[in-house]
Amino acid sequence: MATTKAARTAVKNDINTLKDDLKTLGAEEKAALREKATAAETRLRAKAAETEARLREQSEVLRERARGYYDTARVRGREYYDEASERIDEAQRYLTERVQERPMQSTAIALGVGVVLGLLLAGRRR
Known about the structure:
Layout: H1 2-101, H2 103-125
Helix pairs in contact: 1-2
């Protein structure tokens, strides 16, 4: 019986030692994992900051390019508007001069155009 009691005590001591060793190993692993997680977090934050900086640079480049396109389109639009305005003014002056030169002929032409348009519109209603 003494042997079994001694054996039990030895097994209990071994189990307790094993528990202590497992606790120690668990704590060590936990600390190592924390260190790895901290290092990974640091690397991730650095990469995120680097990516953010690159994105800001690229967005600024795109913004400047868009401003350039806008300015070019605005200038071209203004040029087209000015040119069309000049052509309309020229056409108006030309028409006014021709009507003043030949008022009877202009009136007859306007009357003819009005009659033709009236007939066309009246024909569509039927």
